């Protein structure tokens, strides 16, 4: 993730540079292969110098990871469909659709390709927070629920593994099989 420097104004020049560079990466990703992207090319597209990017992100892997993490930020809280199972099913179907897509695959590769960054942990926290919202609702309704860690181990982890390491085209049926196993074994 980009470095946070004390004293910078939110929305100031620093934020404008970050936005321009992030948009340049997204634009270039849409028009070319990942392997062709370079910091000088991104800098030119963003209207900044390459040294600005190197100073702020250090390397291409860190920049791509930062952009991916920003794209992975949820737009909203999980919807409330009235029950733990319905809430988790709807959330996981959306998660599946987003990450099993070609764009989602590239985002996951970018996040996981930089071992120096804490973006992977932040990605884990984003998922955990979304799941905790669903669990908290179930607790308020006095419903049975499944803990975050178990949900991640039973449905999220296998899905991410298949997305990253299999060429198999995943269908929604796969997501439903994972959910069925989770609900049958743990609810």
TrEMBL record:
GO MF term (any one): DNA binding
Keyword DNA-binding: yes
Gene3D superfamilies registered for this protein in UniProt: Homeodomain-like, Tetracycline Repressor, domain 2
DNA-binding residues: 38-57
Keyword Transcription regulation carried by entry: yes
Boundaries of every HTH tetR-type domain copy: 15-75
Keyword vocabulary terms for this entry: DNA-binding, Transcription, Transcription regulation
The protein's name: HTH tetR-type domain-containing protein
Organism the protein comes from: Acinetobacter gerneri DSM 14967 = CIP 107464 = MTCC 9824
